[in-house]
Write a structure and sequence with these properties.
By secondary structure, the chain is an alpha+beta fold. It has 17 helices and ten strands. A six-stranded mixed β-sheet has the order 5-4-6-7-8-9. Strands 1-2 form a two-stranded antiparallel sheet. A two-stranded antiparallel sheet has the order 3-10. A hairpin with a 2-residue loop joins strand 6 and strand 7. The longest helix has 22 residues. It is globular, with a radius of gyration of 21 Å. The N terminus is likely disordered. This is L-serine ammonia-lyase. Its EC number is 4.3.1.17.
Length: 460
């Protein structure tokens, strides 16, 4: 059984009315094809971005672990833990990384986490010539007394999740009977409940405790980042700026500027912790782990929102992230940064809109804007590090979340929304498949090829 980083158990079923087993069977589509919101018919294939029958718990979206990457650090760590559990007698290991794991594994500390997890008798090979079955493919071989015990293929599909020998490793049930925002909102309207209440009814007891723990970890990542100084690890020699930016914010006299700089400093703080290999929370990935923590810290400490308000918002954020992962991808190696920071911006926008008491329609609109205006965003980390442009990009997206939540409160009063959240998820998935490999977490294109490692903007 896969050893997962999430510490709380996932609900084994839907316990609360009105989600009886019969209701679930009635509301699920059972054919092998589904019609998307845009009217296209696609086969049900899960990770390929099609509309599936149900969804797993939102607990799978929020997981704690070491940075800097959920697909390149947390996923490989989980793969190593799986192999250690499967072969406790092994005294040596061989790991072969392919695709994006090989191209950016050094900058993402993939080899470091594998050696730390499996032990010093671990040989890691970066296979740049092989043809991977997926951009994040690895093979781990267990050895004892020089003899091979077993070789297992792992695919890190994003958010720390794995496929093992072509089979999804998650052993958790699909507890959600719906897998599109449209279907969820129809159900909520029929039952006269809100999106956060829908999450409560599906998830059952234990969700609040789980998300309370997640919120604590998010807040801790911001606090620790604000206190840290110095240079981030790696050849870029990038300076931490969160603490100084926070001090500048406190020295401002313009209230609007203070709020903007404070929020940005919090996003820098959590993202810098991630880049240093610190303990962070996937939201939905580690590459985008600065956005939700920054918003929670800011609205809790600077805007006097209650923890209960933000907890409601976090539930809806998890639902939004779940919909994106189910119907598209949250992996930068598959969808570019639109799948990471774009997804996080959608989640954060929905979270703040919900916490502010907006309607489900307004919450959906906030989420839709958060993702729509990141469509086509590339993943081109300089030097393979989750630093440039990742850290600053988290801060920019956090600021956009506030703008989206502000706009969503008013714009539906003056116009009919033609673009749904489901439309944008579908568009993001199609766009991600069209993006070239060089712009999807390979460091072979974009900023990664025009900015030399270790140089500033003047080339020094």
């Amino acid at each position: 059984m896969l050893v997962r980083s999430a510490t709380a158990p996932v609900s084994s079923g839907i316990l609360l009315h009105p989600f009886t087993a019969g209701a679930i069977r009635h509301h699920r589509q059972v054919s092998s094809h589904h019609v998307t919101p845009a009217g296209k018919l696609y086969p049900v294939t899960g990770e390929q971005g099609c509309y599936t029958e149900g969804m797993h718990s939102i607990k799978e979206i929020f997981k704690k672990g070491p940075g800097p990457s959920s697909s390149h650090t947390l996923g490989p760590m989980n793969a190593a833990l799986y192999m250690k559990h499967r072969h406790p007698q092994a005294d040596a290991w061989k790991v072969r990384l392919q695709g994006s794991l090989a191209l950016t594994g050094k900058g993402h500390l993939t080899d470091d986490i594998l050696i730390r997890t499996l032990g010093p008798a671990t040989e890691v090979t970066f296979d740049l010539k092989g043809t991977p079955v997926h951009p994040n493919t690895m093979y781990i071989t267990a050895l004892q007394d020089g003899e091979e015990l077993e070789t297992v293929q792992f695919v890190s599909i994003g958010g720390g999740k794995l496929e093992i020998n072509g089979v999804p490793a998650a052993n958790t049930p699909e507890i959600y009977p719906h897998s599109t925002m449209a279907a969820i909102r129809r159900w909520c309207k029929e039952q006269d409940i809100t999106l956060d209440q829908y999450v409560d009814m599906v998830e059952g007891p234990g969700l609040n405790d789980y998300l309370d723990d997640i919120m604590d970890a998010m807040l801790a990542s911001v606090r620790e980042g604000l206190a840290a100084e110095g240079i981030l690890p790696g050849s870029l020699k990038l300076k931490r700026v969160a603490k100084e930016l926070h001090e500048d914010a406190l020295a401002c006299t313009d209230p609007d500027e203070i709020f903007h700089l404070l929020l940005a400093s919090y996003a820098f703080a959590a993202s810098e912790q991630n880049a240093a290999g610190g303990f962070v929370v996937t939201a939905p990935t580690m590459g985008s782990c600065g956005i939700l923590p920054a918003l929670i810290y800011h609205f809790l400490h600077d805007r006097n929102y209650s923890r209960a308000q933000l907890l409601k918002g976090l539930k809806v954020a998890g639902l939004v992230g779940n919909l994106i992962q189910t119907n598209a991808t949250i992996s930068g190696a598959k969808g570019g940064c639109q799948a990471e920071v774009g997804a996080a911006c959608a989640m954060g926008s929905a979270m703040i809109a919900c916490a502010a008491g907006q309607s489900d329609g307004q919450v959906e609109y906030a989420a839709e804007m958060g993702l729509e205006h990141h469509l086509g965003l590339t993943c081109d980390p300089v030097g393979g590090y989750v630093m440039i442009p990742c850290i600053e990009r988290n801060a920019m997206a956090a600021l956009r979340c506030v703008d989206n939540a502000r706009l969503s409160r008013h714009i539906l009063r003056v116009k009919h929304e033609r673009v749904s959240f489901d439309h944008v998820v579908e568009a993001m998935n199609i766009t991600g498949m069209k993006l070239p490999m060089e712009l999807k977490e390979s460091s072979l294109g974009g900023l990664a090829v025009v900015i030399p490692d270790g140089c500033d903007s003047q080339g020094q």
